[in-house]
Amino acid sequence: MATTMKALVYHGPGKMSLEPRPMPQIEASTDAIIKITRTTICGTDLHILKGDLPACAPGRILGHEGVGVVEHVGPGVAAFKVGDRVIVSCISACAKCEYCRRGMSSHCTTGGWILGYTIDGTQAEYVRVPYADTSLYAIPPGADEEALIMLSDILPTGFECGVLNGRVQPGNTVAIVGAGPVGLSALLTAQLYSPSEIISIDLDANRLEVAKGLGATAVVNSSDGKAVEAVMRLTGGRGVDTAIEAVGVAATFGLCQDIVGAGGVIANIGVHGAKVDLHLERLWSHNVTITTRLVDAVTTPKLLQAVQSHRLDAKRLITHRFPLAKIAEAYDTFGRAATTRALKVILEA
User: Fold this and answer.
1) What is 4-152+296-348's CATH number?
2) What is the C-alpha separation between 257 and 245, in angstroms, rounded?
3) What is the mean pLDDT of the chain?
4) Which numeric CATH code is attached to 156-291?
């Protein structure tokens, strides 16, 4: 039996390598070891590589998304057995602590977002998943594994942090600032609530074309600095009911403040590595709600049903495929999305 595996290891800002690492072992009775069949790269992984998330220490195996097959289970695991095909959630949930009981499993006192952050993650041939019963999801027979990788993180993130926090309702006008994978996930899932308009805003004309194909009713290229004026024209000067920030920089959060209408919601999804300005001198009288959230992945079963019933075509977010052995090339492709047109990059282990 093999004692080592291939894994993508973080070695500090700007440094990573695919190298042999010891096979993960069961450490608690509720653990499962998953043989990863497919994984992917998230924008948050790029934030780690930039040094924006110092809690991720050098030596960590990156990655928090994937699908695979159960290889081993601890004696406390009741819902899964060896050989089961599963989705690995980006959130490890004990299901017992105060936060998990409140539906805030991202703040689980012994779990939360730990995979590929404070414990070893999924960009490897095997991964240890804590709290397997409540952190894995069974893959239905005949389901497309590639599409279901989107349920590890980006679809629940776009849905929970953007659509649900943004209080999207039938007939609303929604603007999504950022047409990367998470912004496009918000675009896809917003359509489940029948808003009258969904405006996609980005600097990248290629991504805006993708947004059109995925259901945006209008697109705005913000590279000319006139995005606010364009949105106001589209909304008759009223602004939008929901502004979803899906980038994580000061300029895009500022844009959301400029385009939200009275009584509207600014729903932040982006990972912010630097401070932003809040313009209360303008917003104090506008009945505006600002929400923040880390994905809790509590909607994964609902989204799984939507994918299985073909209400959500999650596979359309996939643009590139690589073997795990070429993960450095995959990171380069994903990191240069403006030129490579990359959205989600699939890695086959």
Assistant:
1) 3.90.180.10
2) 10
3) 96
4) 3.40.50.720
**pLDDT digit string (tens) for 1-13?**
689 999 999 999 9
- What is the amino acid identity at position 215? G
Which residues lie below 8 Å from residue 5, measured CB to CB, with a gap of 6+?
20, 21, 22, 23, 124, 125, 126
Torsion angle of the four alpha carbons 107, 11, 8, 31, in this order, in degrees rounded to the nearest 10: -40
DSSP states along 108-171: -TT-BS-BTTTB--SSBSEEEESSHHHHEEEPPTT--HHHHHTTTTHHHHIIIIIIITTT--TT
Task: Please answer whether residues 250 and 275 qualify as being in contact, where contact means their C-beta atoms are separated by less than 8 angstroms.
Answer: yes
Where do the structural domains in the chain lie, given as residue ranges? 4-152+296-348, 156-291
Helix (H, G, I), strand (E, B) or coil at 228: helix
pLDDT in tens, 208-222: 999 999 999 999 999
pTM here? 0.95
